[in-house]
Amino acid sequence: MVSNPPGTAPQDAAAAAAAAAQPLRTLVSAPFMHATGTWSALRAMTHGGLVAIPDTTDRLDAAEMCGLIEREGLNLISLVGEAFCRPVAAELESGQYDLTSVHTVLLGGAAPHPQTRRRLQARIPNAVFSESVGSSETMAVLNRQDAPGKEAAEGGVFSALPRGCAVDLTYSRLLTSRAEEIGLLAAREPLPLGYLGDPDKTAATFRTVDGQRLAVPGDLVRVRADGHLALLGREATTINTGGEKVHTEEVERVLLAHPAVGDVVVVGRPSERWGEEVVAVLRLTADAGSPSHRRHRPSSR
């Protein structure tokens, strides 16, 4: 999945803090080996703010995290996909926490389901939710923001930041802003020189298209008629089943909409008939057998 320093439009978080006339007080819950954790901490420190780290560092403890946010009056938090958002939403729904100090929630690393995002918005009512897409090679290239009280719309749809663009699948041309075409997410300069000691990987990722040097890490997008980009997922995780291209993250979003599904990963496995077949590995919730769950019809929204 796309790796992302969440929100990295750092100016967004800085502007929000300045408007609130208070320094950044930031929760860093992701590992520091990942850009999500590193950039969240650096953003706070370079603005003279505070960095709060949960005591439990070998796993996610949602109760400890929510308690830390409330106790320290943190105003900016970063969360990574369903792995963080879903347990935090469930903990907040216990009704024991006051997170009115939070003015910005940065989402990155993996896309949360819109339903989970709405659950968080209901419990963190004063916050702008800023979700960005990028990678270690590109930094943030796509972004979407929802103001306080604005309900999350469809998941996985973003606006391109100034450095963000898309190229066709043959790396021969840039896609126009309303191409209605599937391509690869790319970033313009400034960019890294390449991968240290790996010229083959450097040549595969950093390419010249239409006279521009671009970084193309391998994330598929659909360029829509309205000018937005729909993130489909990594090209390497796309499943070719009987000639049909199935994007695993789209399937996961649909399955996660079912209340009996706690977590899911969709993979391809060999099939004599189809070449590959789509398989979903589910973790069910504790009340998965309830009658209301059996009647539920999931939606991708």
Overall description:
It is a single chain. Helices cover 25% and strands 30% of the residues. By secondary structure, the protein is an alpha+beta fold. It folds into three domains: 10-155, Rossmann fold; 164-233, Roll (Luciferase, domain 3), CATH 2.30.38; 238-295, 2-Layer Sandwich (GMP Synthetase, Chain A, domain 3). An eleven-stranded mixed beta sheet has the order 2-1-3-4-5-6-7-13-12-9-8, sandwiched between helices. A two-stranded antiparallel ribbon has the order 10-11. The protein has a two-stranded antiparallel ribbon with strand order 14-15. Strand 16 (261-271) and strand 17 (275-284) form a beta hairpin. Helix 3 (62-72) packs across helix 4 and helix 4 runs parallel beside helix 5.
Biggest pleated-sheet summary: 11 strands, mixed
Shape: globular
| Assembly of the depicted chains | single chain
Number of domains: 3
CATH class of the largest domain: Alpha Beta
How far apart the termini lie comes to 20 Å
Low-confidence stretches: 1-8
User: What structural class do helix, strand and pairing data support?
Assistant: alpha+beta
Q: How many DSSP helices?
A: 8
Radius of gyration: 20 Å
Provide the CATH topology of the largest domain.
Rossmann fold
Order of helices and strands: HEHEHEHEHEEEEEHEEEEEEHEEH
Q: What is the strand arrangement across the widest sheet?
A: 2-1-3-4-5-6-7-13-12-9-8
Q: What is the name of the CATH architecture of the largest domain?
A: 3-Layer(aba) Sandwich
Q: Total strand count, please? A: 17
